[in-house]
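Justification of computing resources. Each target in the renewal requires a structure prediction run like the one illustrated here; the chain below, 546 residues long, is used simply to show the kind of job we budget for.
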Amino acid sequence: MTPAEVKALPVRELPRLARDVRARILDVVGANGGHLASSLGAVELAIGLVRVFEPARDRIVWDVGHQAYAWKILTGRDGAFDTLRRLGGLSGFPNPEESPCDAFVSGHAGAALAAAQGMAAARDLKGGDAHVVAVVGEASLANGMALESLCALRSFKRLTLVLNDNAPAPAFGNAFFGALGLAYRGPVDGHDVSAVEKALEQARLCDGPVVLHVRTVKGRGYAPAEADPTAWHGVPPHAGNGVADAGRTWSGEFGRMLVDLGRKDPRVCAVTAAMPHGTGLVPFAQAFPDRFFDVGICEERAVTFAAGLAKAGMRPVVAIYSTFLQRAFDQIMHDVCILNLPVVFAVDRAGCVGADGRTHHGMFDIPMLRCLPNMSVLQPRDAASLGRMLAAAFAQGGPVAIRWPRGAPPPDGPEGPFAWGTAEQLSAPKAPVQLWALGDQVPKARAAAEILAGKGLAAGVVDARFVKPHDAALLACQRAAGMFIASLENGSVAGGFGEAIGADARFGWPDAFVGHGSAEELERAIGFTAQDVAQGVVAALGKAGG
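Resulting C-alpha cells:
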C-alpha cells in the first residue's frame, strides 16, 4: 500500500485498515519472528502519520524502530513484507537505504529526538518547509540523550515530538513539559485513528515545537500480546501457536549461576538497563530484589552506577547486550577502568545475532574492550566453562568482561585445568597448524581441523578462553616451533582477537556492517563456515610457502 492510497481512504475505512495491518503483522511475524507487541500498538499512529504528513518529504524519525512495522506496510513495502528480517529482505528496523520514507536508522533507543532536531536545523539553514516528527516511547524518553534533547526542544521550529506512551500509568504530562516551556497536547487515545489524525494535523499547523501525547496499548488487537507484552516483545517464528519455549540458553544459564553466586556472597549485585528478561536476570531479581537494579534504557548510567557500587565495596554484575554496551564506552573507560574497579560485565548477544541485523549485531565488543587498560575479556565455550569464568572473574580485583553469543550453549564437555590467562589445547598440540578459537567457534574449529585432515594437513585446536590477557606463553611456544596460527572469533576481525595474537590467518566478521538473515546464511555469505576456514588456511599457507 502506498501513502497516496492511505490518504485517499475515507475515514470510515480506517478501522478496517488498522485491522488488516495488524493481521498482516501477525502473519509475517508468525512466519519470520520479530518484534510484535510494540508494532501492534503503533498501527493507528502509523496510519495517522502517513495521512497527515508526506512520508518521503517530511522527516518521520522512529525512536527504536521495532514499533515501525505498520509504517513499512503503509509506505509502499507491503508487497515485500513477507521478506521481513530474511536474508536480502526488509530490515526489522527503519532503514534509509531501504526507503526514502525511513528518515533515520533506528535500532537503539533515545536517539530520535536529537536526530530530528538536527534535521530541523538543517531544513531551516537550507530554507526548506518540511515538517519533522520524532516518535518516542515513554521508556525511551528517560534515556539520557533523549532528556538532553528534550531540554533543547523549544529552540526548534516545526518539530513535533509524539510521545507514544504505553505505560500502565502516564509518567509524563502537561506539568512536566510545561516546566520545560513546551506546548503540550493530549493525551490522545492512540487507537482512535480519527482522534490521532486530528491531533497530528493540529500539531503540523504549529510553527513552534509541540509535544503530542498519545496513549497506546502494546500488543493491541492480539490478546496474548496485550496480556503479556514483555513475552511478546521479540518473538521467534510461532505461526500463531504461542511463544516458543526458548529452552536452555546462554542467558538462562548465566542467570542461574548468578543466583548461586548471590547466595554465597551478599556483596553480589545485578544491574540491567531495561533488559531483565533478555539478560536472564529475572531469577536473581526474584531471589534478591534488594540487590537487583534496573536503571531503564540508560546504559551509561548502568555502568557508572555499578562503578559506584564497586567503589563502595559491592560486587556488581552489569548484564547488557553487546550492541547496547557500545553506548557506555566512556563510562567503562573513565568510571570503571581508570579506578580498576571490580565490575563484571556480562556481555550477552556477542557476535552475530541473525535477523535483527546491523543495528544489533554484537561484533564490536572485543575491539572496544581489549584496548582498555585493566580490562580482562573472556569467552566460554559451554555453560560449565561459563561457570568457571564467572567464579574466576569475582576473584579478580578489576574489571572483567565475559561475552557469549545469542542462543543455546552446546552440551558441557570435559575441560582441563583452568588458570587465569591460559588457553586450553584441545587436540593435536604438535600439529603444524593451530586453530585458536573463541567460545562458540570451537566446534567450527574442530570441523575445520577434520576437513584439513582430509586434505593431509594436521591441525590442532586451541580454546583460547581469554581475549585479554591471552595465553602468551602457549602462543610463544607454538611460534618457536614454526606453527601456523589461525584465529576464529564471532566478532569483527578489525581490532579483534586475531589481531591481538598476531594470527597468520584471521577468521571472523568483516570490517563492515553485516546485514540481516539467519546466522548460518550470513556465515555462508561472508565465507565463515568450517569449509571456508579450511580453504582459507590452505590458501594462506600457500601464500606463505608453507
